[in-house]
């Protein structure tokens, strides 16, 4: 398990993670959604309690399955549709500004 955690610390890109776990991936999907994939992978890991909480004998396989799932989330869907990042969760493409804030800034 310690080896897996140490190995993960040295991976930098989505491609590094996908190659480490030997997951076939769509290059076009990764080019567009690399941060979304890694964030979703992190969310899936957090949901199971993190890498350290996984049984040592099956940690690699579990991480591999979670990363493959994260990649597949974006094969037929976009980052906006998946709402991985807070900006997509709260605004959903709309940006609202309170009129009182504008009035204060303008001195009204």
UniProtKB/TrEMBL annotation:
Keyword Magnesium: no
Keywords on record: Nitrogen fixation
Pfam families (UniProt xref): NifW
Tree of life domain: Bacteria
Keyword Endoplasmic reticulum: no
Function: May protect the nitrogenase Fe-Mo protein from oxidative damage.
Similarity comment: family membership: Belongs to the NifW family.
Complexes and interactors: Homotrimer; associates with NifD.
This protein's name: Nitrogenase-stabilizing/protective protein NifW
Organism: Aromatoleum evansii
């Amino acid at each position: 398990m310690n080896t897996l955690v140490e190995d993960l610390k040295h991976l930098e890109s989505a491609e590094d993670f996908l190659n480490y776990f030997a997951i076939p991936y769509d290059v076009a999907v990764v080019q567009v959604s690399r941060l979304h994939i890694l964030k979703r992978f992190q969310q899936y890991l957090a949901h199971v309690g993190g890498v350290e909480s996984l049984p040592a004998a099956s940690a690699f396989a579990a991480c591999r399955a979670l990363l493959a799932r994260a990649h597949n989330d974006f094969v037929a869907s976009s980052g906006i549709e998946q709402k991985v990042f807070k900006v997509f969760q709260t605004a959903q493409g709309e940006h609202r500004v309170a009129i009182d804030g504008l009035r204060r800034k303008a001195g009204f």
